[in-house]
Design a protein that fits this description.
ER-Golgi transport; syntaxin binding; NSF_attach; elongated; Gamma-soluble NSF attachment protein; TPR-like_helical_dom_sf; single chain; 17 helices
């Protein structure tokens, strides 16, 4: 079966090369027909699992389309060449070709297709190079935003923010979350703004920037419904505990369902949050009782301990 598909592919390549030849009566290559034959060859090679040859056929198809000024079809062929590289686990090279395709989609006036290609490239490279994936998601978000497709832009920004948090690139994560929150506010999705404020505060506290965290909450009072929401109350309690170095209070807030059921990357920030200096310990029950009884009672308790050993150890 594989041998049959390979022979079929080679026949299509021979036809393509024939279409590209010129002669006395044929002054111009037939790029359109050649591109079609290279495309058929690529499919046959792919079915035979000859991915490198399929990639080469896709690249020749793309070149023929470019010579024919058919940018959209050239971009599609470059994208397919990238997918063949993916099959060979050559992911950085695959992403390069898909990026090239996205630029051609933009040049052709099809930005939505360009953004979808960038998202696809981001998914491919996410586990290998999160830094590159962040860049691709941000580019996709920018394209969607320019086209006023804000929900799609938010989806891309959300992916970028989570990757930045996962990679502990917290300064960039704070900016990315602010961008998300601004767009959610623009489309009047206020409850999600509250959640983004929680994420921002956790990021700022992990950056050891209490002032930025407090400012973030203060600025959110302008969002309709935030003041008086459970999100606002929890954040005020969190900031109070952090400011007073009360680890128990901070942990109680961060272990609440409101925090624990956020996106996993943000929930982890909450669970790992430690107050400066390691926090204060809760007073023991005996200490609390002594304080209630006053200094005299404390002195009496000390005298009892002294009397116990007054006769020596024997």
């Amino acid at each position: 079966m594989a041998a049959q598909k390979i022979n079929e592919a080679l026949e299509h390549i021979a036809k393509a090369e024939k279409y590209l030849k010129t002669g006395f009566l044929k002054w111009k290559p037939d790029y359109d027909s050649a591109a079609t034959e290279y495309g058929k060859a690529a499919v046959a090679f792919k079915n035979a699992k000859q991915f490198d040859q399929a990639r080469e056929a896709c690249l020749r198809e793309a070149e023929a389309h470019e010579n024919n000024k058919a940018l959209f079809h050239a971009a599609k062929a470059y994208e397919q060449a990238g997918m063949m590289l993916k099959e060979m686990q050559r992911l950085p090279e695959a992403v390069q070709l898909i990026e090239k395709a996205s630029m051609m989609y933009l040049e052709n006036g099809t930005p939505d297709t360009a953004a979808i290609a960038l998202e696809r490239a981001g998914k491919l490279i996410e586990n290998v190079s999160p830094e590159k994936a962040v860049q691709l998601y941000q580019q996709a978000a920018s394209v969607f935003e320019n086209e006023e497709r804000l929900r799609q832009a938010l989806e891309m920004l959300g992916k970028a923010s989570r990757l930045l948090v996962r990679g502990r690139r917290l300064d960039e994560a704070a900016l990315s979350l602010q961008k998300e929150k601004s767009i959610y506010k623009e489309i009047e999705n206020y409850p999600t703004c509250y959640k983004k404020t929680i994420a921002q505060v956790l990021v700022h506290l992990h950056r050891n920037d209490y002032v930025a965290a407090e400012r973030c909450v203060r600025e959110s009072y302008s969002i309709p419904g935030f003041n008086g929401s459970e999100d606002c109350a929890a954040l005020e309690q969190l900031l109070e505990g952090y400011d007073q170095q009360d680890q128990d209070q901070v942990s109680e807030v961060c272990n609440s369902p409101l925090f624990k059921y956020m996106d996993n990357d943000y929930a982890k920030l909450g669970l790992s949050l430690v107050v400066p200096g390691g926090g204060i310990k809760k007073k023991s029950p005996n200490a609390a009782q002594d304080k209630a009884r006053g200094p005299a009672a404390v002195g009496s308790h000390a005298d009892e301990e002294e009397d116990e050993y007054s006769g020596g150890l024997c």
